[in-house]
Write a structure and sequence with these properties.
Length: 362
């Protein structure tokens, strides 16, 4: 099944298709992770994107029942140098090709992923399309140039109805902008009583649940496209502790008057160093985002920068000067990736307990 990847900038890569035999288009990005392709494929933050894996061999340990980050994959497609047809792992249940066929996903293998990654690093993120070998290349390029990047992806991946993950500890409302199951896992491991709500839930509706804390999840796309998020966050600030991750971090920034911008090629992988400005300690983090908070725009807000990325010095963490609210751009639940930043969930628990104790004493 010969296929080719065509970029809007005119580059063409010839390879072999795997998974479902269909043409797909989306935003082409790259991920530097050496493992964790199953978590990546099922991460809702990749909604509308075709992901190029920089590590050359993908699929060697198969697909298992435990490593999903969502029930329904939102990724558009996958680009790899070599796809493994015969995985070897005691947990493996399907090959990557078998999984893609069952989920009606498409991919392309056998292309020069190093060259593609260099193109994306030099020119920035571009639109691309995986097509059949005989497709008209000029027509595809012209079509891509006239196609807009996807918008409102959060609406596509957020839960439509609220649901509970019961626990006997603190009550946390998790606002689902495309939440990974890893966030829910970390909260339930700490015995939190978690209520997961849709991205369009209002502050008034959340306060009726009487939570001890609010978790704003990761998610795909431009944070400025998430309608109503700023109003909801401002309606909760000071009334209940808030912890934001990735998109949730950006939304806190926007709600407090900061601005966001699109990175040239984003941060995607499990080996990104982040500096904690308070402790001067460096954590190796898992990241997946194409936007960042503009540091200059923080000057006239009640937010203070707490972390920066060492690779490009962009913002990686915020804390509110007045209210119990903090956020990070990276993924402390690290699915997949290092667990250096896992302690942030414990800090969230302490913040909720202190706020609750202070509230009761008053």
């Amino acid at each position: 099944m010969k296929k080719k990847l065509i970029l809007e900038s005119g580059e063409i890569f010839h390879g072999k298709g795997f998974g479902a035999n269909q043409e797909i288009e989306g935003e082409v990005v790259f991920n530097t992770g050496m493992t964790g392709y199953q978590e990546l494929i099922s991460d809702p933050s990749y909604c509308g994107q075709i992901v190029c894996m920089t590590y050359p061999l993908i699929g060697n340990y198969g697909i298992n029942r435990d490593d999903y980050e969502s029930i329904e994959p939102a990724i558009k497609g996958l680009i790899v140098k070599e796809v493994c047809d015969f995985p070897s792992n005691f947990r493996s249940q399907l090959s990557l090709d078998e999984f893609f066929k069952k989920r009606n996903l498409s991919g392309i293998s056998g292309i020069d992923t190093r060259r593609l990654t260099r193109i994306l690093r030099n020119s920035g993120v571009v639109k691309g399309k995986i097509v059949n070998e005989n497709a008209d290349e000029n027509l595809v390029i012209e079509t891509l140039k006239n196609t807009s990047f996807p918008i409102n992806q959060v609406e596509q991946v957020s839960t439509k109805t609220a649901y509970a993950s019961p626990g006997r500890g603190l009550k946390v409302v998790l606002v689902d902008y495309g939440s990974k199951l890893g966030i829910l896992r970390e909260l339930t491991q700490r015995n939190c009583d978690v209520i997961v709500v849709s991205q369009d839930t209002t502050a008034e509706e959340i306060l009726l649940i009487n939570p001890d804390g609010i978790m704003l999840s990761n998610g795909p796309g431009d944070p400025e496209d998430v309608a109503g998020a700023s109003e909801m966050i401002n309606g909760l600030l000071g009334k209940v502790p808030i912890f934001g991750i990735c998109l949730g971090h950006q939304l806190i920034g926007l709600a407090c008057g900061a601005k966001t911008f699109k990175l040239k090629f984003g941060h995607r992988g499990g080996n990104h160093p982040v500096l904690d400005l308070k402790t001067q300690k460096v954590a190796i983090t898992s990241q997946n985002h194409g936007y960042a908070v503009d540091q200059e725009s923080l000057k006239n807000t009640d937010l203070v920068e707490t972390h920066i990325a060492l690779n490009d010095k962009t913002n990686e963490g915020l804390k509110h000067k007045i209210h119990p609210c903090f956020s990070v751009q990276y993924h402390p639940e690290a699915s997949p990736g290092p667990e250096d930043a896992n302690y942030l969930f414990d800090e969230f628990i302490v913040l909720m307990e202190e706020f609750k104790s202070k509230k009761l004493s008053n």
